[in-house]
Amino acid sequence: MVEITRDVVIVGAGAAGLTAANELRKAGLSVAVLEARDRVGGRLWTDVIDGAMLEIGGQWVSPDQDALIDTVAELGLETFSRYREGDNVYVGPDGVAHRFTGEMFPVSPETERVIAEVTERLDRMVSEIDPDRPWEHPDAAEWDAITWDAWLREQTDDDEAVRNLAFATGSAMLTKPTHTFSLLQSLLMAASAGSYSNLVDADFILDKRVVGGLQQVPLLLAERLGDDVHLNQPVRTIEWGDGGVTATTDDLTVRARFAILAHAPVLYNRISFVPALPRRQHQLHQHLSMGFVIKVHAVYETPFWRDKGLSGTAFSPYELSHEAYDNSNHGDERGTLVGFVSDANADGVFELSADERKERILESLSHYYGEEAKNPIVYYESDWGSEEWTRGAYAASFDMGGLHRYGPDLRAAVGPIHFACSDMAGAGYQHVDGAIRMGRLAAASIVEASRS
Q1: Which of 202, 229, 246 is the last residue of a domain?
Q2: Tens digits of pLDDT across the chain (452 residues)
Q3: Does residue 399 sit within a domain?
Q4: Alpha carbons 137 and 22: distance in angstroms, whole number
Q5: For binding FAD, which residues are annotated in this chain's numbering (predicted)?
Q6: Is 35 labeled as ligand-binding?
Q7: Residues 156 and 114 in one domain
Q8: Per DSSP, which regions of 189-236 are E strands?
Q9: CB 403: neighbour CB atoms within 10 A?
Q10: What strands lie across the sheet with 378-383, from one edge to the other?
């Protein structure tokens, strides 16, 4: 057993942990980053599959994500805009593909009116929410006691309007059925992007990508840390008290003054804490769970949809793949589509054989793009639900009532133990931007504590 001593031990080499480590090093503190996987990046993972570079994890950069934008620029990385020229596609309850441009789906005038009215109502509510403290809103308890689906159905009996309004925070972001999380959790999701309108605007929220893949951010951050990043080191035990912390893996012990847990909160129970964490933390962690989404990558000889005048952007609350986009790589003559299958639909397709699942998903994509979509030269499914050190996607969210009840404790340090990950961010919640923000915040708290 190798023993080392550092000022801070950081568990998790994703964007949050590596950002925190670099900030701490700049402040003159020594660090050790312990990562369970054999790679850095956490939920960022760029890989080459059958000759095609695929963004298996997170990938997009939106204009409001200042922390990520600044980090990308500081690391010398370049970005490029997602392809969006041409018509979008919407499949309605009639099963017919309708081409459209602009922000509003091609629905009936009455459904369009309802969607616009409820969106305006949601934007007003979101404007009152502090994404760092949503539980402080005067109506937070009430909003956390009603499901997102039930609240929408109180606003209108137009089912198509409800499905389209629910989509942005349900299938698309929290990746849970809309009856399983609260209105308050949905409002937080929207507030993290600045407004509900921002969240439903694909041209805003899915604006740019990083040339060469977003995993370069953690890779370059890790390079700066050198031998202070230790891979294949799942932490088994953390002993903590007034004197600091001792983190133990199978073959490494790190003694430190402080610790940062910089991984998904659903993994806290993989670590034995001595003494045990306070009861409040135990309760809190039981009310957080990951969503579930399959990210589907389909690569073609050419981006054939562009020849049809299509942007590649497609939506439908009635399709197995509820949204899809042109995800072609910068400078690549091939065309790549990325589609998403989430929540209960993801449950269902994993009951099928791999071949039947692929057939069903490609059939759904063909409803947007035509028969050519059924014949990719590369096909790959990002299944984060099977990842031992993640267990779902994109991030953790609270069950009914949990955000108001436990939210104030989510980031609160426990003695020398601090917490940082995208799952607990306000601005940038569930995104790399939020992970960077939380890494900076945890580092700043420790720097302050170390000087007191």
Answers
A1: 202
A2: 899 999 999 999 999 999 999 999 999 999 999 999 999 999 999 999 999 999 999 999 999 999 999 999 999 999 999 999 999 999 999 999 999 998 889 999 999 999 999 999 999 999 999 999 999 999 999 999 999 999 999 999 999 999 999 998 999 999 999 999 999 999 999 999 999 999 999 999 999 999 999 999 999 999 999 999 999 999 999 999 999 999 999 999 999 999 999 999 999 999 999 999 999 999 999 999 999 999 999 999 999 999 999 999 999 999 999 999 999 999 999 999 999 999 999 999 999 999 999 999 999 999 999 999 999 999 999 999 999 999 999 999 999 999 999 999 999 999 999 999 999 999 999 999 999 999 999 999 999 999 87
A3: no
A4: 35
A5: 35-36, 235
A6: yes
A7: yes
A8: 208-210, 229-230
A9: 25
A10: 97-100, 87-91, 310-315, 323-326, 335-342, 293-300, 378-383
Half-sphere exposure of 346 (CA within 13 A, CB side): 25
Q: How far apart are CA 402 and CA 424, in angstroms?
A: 13
Q: Which domain holds residue 427?
A: 2-43+215-277+414-451
First-to-final CA distance of the chain: 33
Domain identity same for 304 and 378:
yes
Amino acid, single-letter form, for residue 351: E
Helix (H, G, I), strand (E, B) or coil at 255: strand
Is 161 within any annotated ligand binding site?
no
Per the CB < 8 A criterion, the answer to whether 255 and 243 are in contact is no
193 is in an annotated binding site: no
